[in-house]
Fold this protein.
Amino acid sequence: TEELNVTWTQFTGKGNLGNFQNKLFFGKSVDRAKTFEITKVDDNYTDTSGTATVVDPVTNDIFVFFRSFNPPTMVMTKSTSNGVKWSKPTDLLETAPMAPFDQPTVSILDLPFGSSIKDELAPRANAFPSAAITPDGRTLMLAWHERVTPGGTPDPFEAPKVVMIYSTDGGNTW
């Protein structure tokens, strides 16, 4: 059967500290998107956005990656039950705090006439994950953009770069 897997963030309002709260969901359709079976992916992280989903072509395990804003990190959870149950989320960057590049939306119309900062503007960006898996299912890859030194150390004062991590053991180590 052909399956369609989708993940999304559903915003649920503001928390006690005034920050946005949300829940992560997974939907699976086996009837060309006429209906979906929906499960909640995680309750541990409530300040998240940006999801990426990959399916292991050999085992059919489903991996969901997402960005946490508090703490700032990339997170992975895995389902070995076709999306019915999910593993405890794993903080993939717990040994090195993330220095995200989250450029806000800025209109050049809001800047003073003749401002040189216009030349430094780029399209709005948030450090959301992109994920892939090799056809043999042996290597998971996760990429995002972040402020890092040329050697890859997170540094909030560096220029943003695309960074990537990978796992060759089903996401157990990165």
About this structure: The chain has a mean pLDDT of 85.
